[in-house]
Design brief:
This protein has 11 helices and 17 strands. The chain is α/β, with parallel strands linked by helices and 333 residues long. The radius of gyration is 20 Å and the shape is globular. Helix 11 links the parallel strand 16 and strand 17 (328-332). The strands form 4 sheets. Strands 3, 4, 5, 8, 9, 16 and 17 form a 7-stranded mixed beta sheet that branches. It has a 6-stranded parallel beta sheet with strand order 12-11-10-13-14-15.
Length: 333
């Protein structure tokens, strides 16, 4: 039996939960969970914001731990390896996306916390291809958020071939945005942080932004017209997207990694005349995750975290709900 913490209803507290995982399959690994980040997506699943949560739900998809068992077909991982597990715990491995290395776009991918029990537990299981070995020198206690928040903002850098000479804007300096600033600065880009918080301006500059713009100052956004090759939105609220499109250079891109449910309303003409683009992306493939981890170690990129014991899990979730988290929460055992 695996002991875990589960929500039994929408917006409910997490309570002790046990389940029998059955026999380990030939392609699976079992991980002893040492750390697990709490992501806003965990909160969305607990609250059924996306209308596909199944209760009881065991959240947790920013897992760091040690491999305790491996299936007979697993060759790239061994017992004792320190590994991470993110949003996906399995892929079909046969579709065009998987065979092209875009596992994160697999239409049959298994989410770690949807129809599957996640990492708010003593142990978690996953298909081996979704489990990534950590570099030896990485900071284990802060590595978990890289498996969701980190890869979410790193993936567009790879997918759109962002150059070190590009100028990039980041909307929102929170759990995703503070990592985006670090990655983009280390990549060599000129980075501008859009933030509505005066308190975060100094931190944004410290974490890699070269400039900041007050996102509530319409005139300041207008003054940035035609500046950016890429603007990444990390927020989960609706903004004046046409205003941000105006800050793009010709062929510039407004890219969404923050999830929100409202429609995107934009004026078409600025897209047409500037050949600008709107796009979005989810996490990243295991190969891109491994590349991100190596890059993070090389440039000493780490999430800023607050730590809570697994025994204080509901206190940690309440902290996330408060919106005061600085900047990611990690549970430890």
């Amino acid at each position: 039996m695996i002991k875990a913490y589960a929500a039994y209803e929408s917006k409910g507290d997490l309570k002790p939960f046990e389940y029998d995982p059955g026999q380990l399959s030939n392609d699976e690994v079992e991980i002893d969970v040492q750390y697990c980040g709490i992501c806003h997506s965990d909160l969305s699943m607990i609250d059924n914001e996306w209308s596909f949560s199944q209760y009881p739900i065991v959240p947790g998809h920013e897992v760091v731990g040690t491999v305790s068992s491996v299936g007979n077909n697993v060759t790239h991982l061994t017992v004792g390896d320190v590994v991470g597990l993110g949003w996906h715990s399995g892929y079909c491995m046969t579709c065009h996306s998987c065979l092209s290395g875009d596992h994160n776009l697999c239409s049959s991918a298994q989410a770690t916390i949807a129809g599957h029990y996640g990492g708010f537990a003593e142990k978690v299981r996953a298909n081996a291809p979704s489990v990534v070995k950590l570099p030896d020198t990485i900071d284990k206690e802060s590595a978990g958020p890289l498996f969701c928040g980190g890869i979410t903002v790193f993936n567009p850098i790879i997918q759109f071939n962002i150059k070190s000479t590009d100028k990039v804007g980041v909307i929102g300096i929170g759990g995703l945005g503070h990592l985006a600033l670090q990655f983009l600065n280390a990549w060599g880009c000129e980075v501008t942080a859009f933030t509505s918080s005066d308190n975060k301006k100094a931190e944004a500059l410290k974490m890699g932004a070269h400039y900041t713009i007050n996102s509530r100052d319409t005139s300041a956004i207008e003054a940035a017209s035609g500046q950016f090759d890429l603007v990444i939105s990390t927020v989960n609220v609706k903004l004046d997207w046409s205003a941000y499109i105006s800050t793009l250079r010709p062929r510039g891109r407004l890219h969404f990694v923050g999830a929100f449910l409202e429609p995107i309303n934009v004026d078409l003409f600025p897209l047409l005349v500037g050949q600008r683009s709107l796009s979005g992306s989810p996490v990243g493939s295991p190969g891109t995750i491994a590349k991100m981890l190596d890059f993070a170690v090389r440039h000493n990129i780490k999430p800023v975290i607050e730590k809570y014991s697994f025994d204080d899990i509901n206190e940690a979730i309440a902290r996330l709900r408060s919106g005061q988290t600085h900047y990611r929460i990690v549970l430890y055992r």
